[in-house]
Amino acid sequence: MNYCKHLFTRKKLFRYLSYLIGIIILISCSYNLGKQIREIPLHVQQSVSTNLISNGEISSLSLPIVSIYRNRSIDDKCASMKRPSRQSLSNIIRNDKMLNYLGYVLRSHSLFYCSVPKVATRTLLTFMTYLHIRDDLIPLITNYSSSNIFNFNTNSNFKKSSDMINADYFKRILYQSTNNISYKSINDPSILLNSFLSYIMVINKPNLSTIDLWSMYQNKALPLIRLRTLANPSIIFSSKFTRVMFVRHPLERLASAYTDKITPLTNPPFSLYDSLRRTICRKYAQFYLTDDQRMAYRKTKGLSKLKSEPCQKIIPTFEHFIEYLMSSSTFSDVHWQPYSKLCQVCLFKYNFIGKYETMEEDLMKLIEQLGLNRNDWNQKSYFKTGKTKENYKSLYSNLTNQTICKLKYIYKDDFKLFDYKVEDYLTSRKNIQCSLSYKQKLSKKRPNKEN
């Protein structure tokens, strides 16, 4: 009996040892495999990822949120592109008007954000403004001192707390948005900022007036958020800084810009985009106007400047919109200019790249990466346009192959750097082969548009 019990114990011990040896072998194999993968050159890893995507095994939009491939592909692909100017980084940041128009700095979070128009900028600007006021301005104004300003990497233009906020602007905008006259008598900048903070956190609720954040920053209401206010701008290239950019399929962004800026007839008369709509109408007048209406332009001097002129309520087609952009300098507008150039992607090497297609998940990932609590930003509405991908795709169905090829060339860097495909927006055409002649023609016609 004892012998049987002893034999059973030995067998049990042997089984446990076998399990332990198996686990050790498994861990060793996993380590070696991981080591081999890490030693694979980056361009090979990128090639494997791209092949999987092209074969339909994984989608570029379903890669892990802010996938490592999004960041690594920027480094890999920018290596083969034209190098930025040798001009010092600090001078580029201070002197580049576009970067100072689109770029925002959150000092408390060591973050630089390049806002791309038509890529959820209303959501993202609201988020950045919220953090800037809460974590940068209010603590700095509340505990204002010259040493705090110096430690905040701020240039000498900010000598007192009132330099950091345009108080009169906030009084006016809060009064206009709420009809609460008490805001006009508030002189404490921290109270004004807290009031504004409370307001923008509920700004997406019904019956509340919206605040144009683009206009707010153009009016220098919060100047400290701008790049050129950094005493040492090159700090944003340090490894401690998070350089954020959100992108969108180039063709969907272009279609969204057309829908938002050209098709509404509610724009103020002769405002920038209302004037553009009328100009396109007149250029292709034979498609929209009668012979008598076209003749009226020739006979009546200044007719095009009248509010009730023939093109007053004409919405040009998407085809004519695209053709006009390609034949004029209008392609430099921030709403449809390639974002790889707007944000100087190969200079800044953004290390957090979100996508419009995975907006909600990527924004939550950014919040986590900044060490914030999800409750710090509880907005549920991501300002959807109500349009679907199919709505935008339908706009491209009538474009000729020649026009598609021109667009493919204009947005070539956006496609290349961020793994988008022009074919995603072709309804009946599986693939388009574009000759080099399109590149040569556009290069000659638009020599300065991509610089």
TrEMBL record:
GO molecular function: sulfotransferase activity
EC number: 2.8.2.-
Gene Ontology terms: cellular component: Golgi membrane
Entry keywords, A to Z: Carbohydrate metabolism, Glycoprotein, Golgi apparatus, Membrane, Signal-anchor, Transferase, Transmembrane, Transmembrane helix
Flavoprotein is among the record's keywords: no
Record GO biological process: carbohydrate biosynthetic process
Pfam families for this protein: Sulfotransfer_2 (PF03567)
Membrane-spanning intervals of the chain: 16-34
Membrane topology annotation: Single-pass type II membrane protein
Subcellular compartments: Golgi apparatus membrane
Root EC class: transferase
PROSITE patterns: PROKAR_LIPOPROTEIN
PANTHER family tied to this protein: CARBOHYDRATE SULFOTRANSFERASE
Family the entry assigns: Belongs to the sulfotransferase 2 family.
Name of this protein: Carbohydrate sulfotransferase
UniProt source species: Adineta steineri
Lineage: Eukaryota, Metazoa, Spiralia, Gnathifera, Rotifera
